[in-house]
Amino acid sequence: MAEGETESPGPKKCGPYISSITSHSMNLMIRGVVLFFIGVFLALVLNLLQIQRNVTLFPPDVIASIFSSAWWVPPCCGTASAVIGLLYPCIDRHLGEPHKFKREWSSVMRCVAVFVGINHASAKVDFDNNIQLSLTLAALSIGLWWTFDRSRSGFGLGVGIAFLATVVTQLLVYNGVYQYTSPDFLYVRSWLPCIFFAGGITMGNIGRQLAMYECKVIAEKSHQE
Fold this sequence. Notes:
- Helix 3 runs antiparallel to helix 6 and helix 4 (about 130-150) runs parallel beside helix 6 (about 190-225).
- Mean pLDDT is about 80; it is low at about 1-20 and about 60-70.
- About 70% of the residues lie in helices and about 0% in strands.
- The protein is built from six helices and two strands.
- The protein has a two-stranded antiparallel ribbon with strand order 1-2.
- The chain has helices spanning about 15-50, 75-95, 105-125, 130-150, 150-175, 190-225; strands spanning about 55, 180.
- By secondary structure, it is mainly α.
């Protein structure tokens, strides 16, 4: 190259730190959207089952969809699913305990199927009283955690989610937003915390699997660079 000529600057390449932050933020948003729509879908299906069996009753003026559900139920469940699904892998990283038990999509799909089955049992299976049903669903929910999770953080978050969701539901029913038939635990059914616990474990597993896929993609990009 002749003297005096300067080499034309090529396109600037982002540093590895900026690139990883941008990639992580985008993947976080994508995971949140995916979890939201999964939560919306499960809410529509499972809530329809509860309404058909007259387990939950909404006032006629709030029923506003082809799924015979209040309009606010699916987005609320979707938002909760996104928060739970993003929180589980975040807590795993914070505790320094990456979850590696049964980390494949086939296991996650089985976990979803068991959760749907537990919810189905709460509406379809007839017991002599709610206490027997609650004990049965509690055993099934703990069995779901033991089969697909087995982490202390997963169990703790599941219990916390069940407690918080039950309190919120109690307040909604107390204020007349909707109601449960034959309540035996203040204003709700005694088995409701079991459903929330199983749902938290299920969405946590989905969130962990999505997070693991993100880590694989970032690792592959770093290897290629």
